[in-house]
Amino acid sequence: MPDLKAAASALPATPGVYLFKDAKGRVLYIGKALSLRDRVRSYFAGAQESKTARMLEQVADLETLEAPSETDALLLESRLVKDLKPRYNILLKDDKSFPWIVVSEGEDFPRVEVTRETQVKGFRYYGPFMDATGLHRSLQVLQGVFQFRTCSLDLREDDHKRRYHYRPCLLHHIRRCTAPCAEKVSKEDYAEQLSGVKRVLAGDKKGLLAELKARMAESSGRMDFEKAAFLRDQIKALESLDKRGRFSDRPDDLVGPLTPSDGLEELRQLLGLKHPVRRIEGMDIAILQGQDAVGSVVAFEDGIPFKDRYRRYRIKTVSGMDDFAMVREVVSRRFRGEDDWMPQVLLVDGGKGQWNAAAGALESSLGGSGVCLVSLAKREERLFTPDRPEGILLPRRSGALRVCQFVRDEAHRFAGRYHALLRRKRMLGGFVPKRGRG
Q1: What superfamily does domain 2-68 belong to in CATH?
Q2: What is the pLDDT at residue 175?
Q3: Residue 200 has what pLDDT?
Q4: How far is CA 19 from each of CA 11, 193, 292, rounded to the nearest angstrom?
Q5: CA–CA separation, 183 and 171 (whole Å)
Q6: What CATH class has 260-427?
Q7: Where are the domains of the chain?
Q8: Which helix (H) or strand (E) holds 412?
Q9: DSSP at 149
């Protein structure tokens, strides 16, 4: 096929969709590519498996459609396959079930997920998709843009008591979910997010961008700057899909774990632990001008805050600004005596000095038990571990780093809240007015 080989070599090295046609113009196969040139040339570069070889014997023409990004190419491929139903798209996949994106219906806060099951009531289907790996990558990118939920929690708008006290998971911390579970977003605003996802999946990204820009201008005009900033970030993220072809080239703020378990697994591998990391505790110290020193310990299970295990400590044995001694006191008090709930990882806010102080207290209290100690220093975000006493600088996009940041920041928040409570109590002579949650 010299003509087709030459045509393949002349294709652009950009994302897109290719269509193989027979002599009568009928579409035999549709595929997507990160690089049209490389992918199509691969068909003519050497021996192919029998099914592909039989298809290539019938190919007489080639058509390509460029796309701005891998995600756009994936969605375009899905729509074309659904409309044209090429014979070899099924044959070359050995009749395996294809993945779909589904959006739940009839819920106050719908969720988005990938499934291979079809005809399930209560879901709106988009697809099918030929490339399962590319689909999961693209859904990850879309979640970074629209911040929809992927969890299976049963959420209702009128369930204020439960949602008011719920702490959102890691996905909210890394700006991948607006956390309807914790009343961080209204039903109306969340519906707007889902509307954007549906429009992109249906192929109306251009129209959506125009609408988002109009809504941003309107929000800014009525001085609703928080909403305008949210829309601005959505527009920027959505437009960035057009600027980069490959998923691995995307900006850091669009890359991260799709679920908390991804970050926990990366942390397990980083620390060389044999078993999955399910329980993490974070510890921090809060003090101002040597007064009202307190410590906090927060707990996480499977990446979600476990508030029943939160603990706070008023420093008793240390005077002045000795941060290391305070760390030793809090760690010693936390692990003093029997406790059925033990973390696999203890994260201390601080650098090498705080790590050493906590390590000494752990050794005295537990005698070198199975708790893995790490500390995370601010500014550089250097992670200190038992095997890396000099510290590790993880990539900004690291899922393990984001898990540690989430735990560290929650411990800092909880310690700061208790410190402020004691300071107000001292200044008001023991009377503290009731306030909402921090």
Answers
A1: GIY-YIG endonuclease (3.40.1440.10)
A2: 80
A3: 87
A4: 13, 33, 70
A5: 15
A6: alpha beta
A7: 2-68, 100-253, 260-427
A8: helix 399-427
A9: B
